[in-house]
Design goal:
Layout lengths: L7 H10 L7 H13 L1 H18 L1 E2 L6 E2 L13 E8 L2 H10 L4 E5 L17 H9 L5 E4 L5 H14 L5 E4 L15 H9 L2 E2 L1
Parallel strand pairs: 3-4, 3-5, 5-6
Antiparallel strand pairs: 1-2, 6-7
Helix pairs in contact: 1-2, 4-7
Function: May play a role in DNA repair. It seems to be involved in an RecBC-independent recombinational process of DNA repair. It may act with RecF and RecO.
Family: Belongs to the RecR family.
Organism: Rhizobium rhizophilum
Length: 201
Amino acid sequence: MAKRVTGPEIEKLIQLLAKVPGLGPRSARRAALHLIKKKDQLLGPLGHAMGEAYDKVKICSCCGNVDTIDPCTVCTDVARDQSVIIVVEDVSDLWALERAGAMNAAYHVLGGTLSPLDGIGPDDLNIKGLIDRVAKGGVREIIIAVNATVEGQTTAHYITDHLTGLDIKTTRLAHGVPVGGELDYLDEGTLSAALRARTTI
């Protein structure tokens, strides 16, 4: 059994960093050591920024995005075309599409996909919020931009069925998005092309 070489505070920092996606135990140790070496330039400001984020971050009551204001920056942007809503699984997908800069539309974050095997049903997602937004009027198109997985397609069909009769155009991303792929890992060019080549469901 390896002996501890640091105090409990540093071990706790390493353990918490190891829980961040993309960082394993070894990467977390390297990151922690780098932060400690740059204590004044990085560790202090990072701790302060994280404290502020903890206090101020909210979930947008309109679209489900994360921000420090509610409604969020995207929903309150008057330059956006609020008549077009891009439906995504997660906030990371919203950020990926924004990086691509292909459309200046509104968004709606579902918070996941339907997955009966995992016990995730319609009530566990932000689908009712989407239906309510559309029912209020002013929306002419819904772009379903979910991952090209079985769960994603099931979710897309469920949403499409529940939008029937609301007199709006429903489209989805083109098949340029690879099956089994996740939006957050795609390059901006692929995302832009997929949005431009969307098709009616």
